[in-house]
Amino acid sequence: MLEQLFPPPIAVVERYDDDEPVELFPEEEAQLGNAVPKRRFEFGTVRACAREAMRVLDVAPAAILPGPKREPLWPDGIVGSLTHCAGYRAAALARTGDFETIGIDAEPHLPAPDGVLGAIAIPAELGRMAGLKGEDPKICWDRLLFSAKETTYKAWFPVTRRWLGFEDADITLDAGGTFHSRILLPDSPIAGFDGRWLVQGDLLVTAIAVPARQ
Question: Record's superkingdom (predicted)?
């Protein structure tokens, strides 16, 4: 799915199950502690995706540990993003010479749980919901908005090292498969991000990739 949203040379690896055994680095294993099997499976499979993407980029396999905000810590010279949801795990990686930051998110293509839209959306976004539903009623726009917010944060944090709340980005979704995230923080070093989205079967994915400044 994500390969349809990203330009080369971003390396994308996806899996739809946890059937293949994954050997973790000792420091990754230490992160899991007494985690339940579901957590262990998704943790391992998404890292297997990332290491396969490293191989595609001709980068030696490395442990992928969480940072202070749970962000993945990549080897020098690499940027990337991870995502997992029921039935889907994925990693997207690139070299820093090619891309400044990457963000991805996957969600089940189902309506968001009660209360979620009100918790994540600002008035401008809520005001656009009716029009989006009119353009394509088959799309779960509330869930798509949530995913675009998650992807925006994943692209934002590695560049700024700052928190970004749901209320700090105004996301305009387009029925044609794109979105724009306008950052609302008054002192933001970034005006916004352009992203793409895709719904396929019972999954939706959102993606942002910012080319490196030459």
Answer: Bacteria
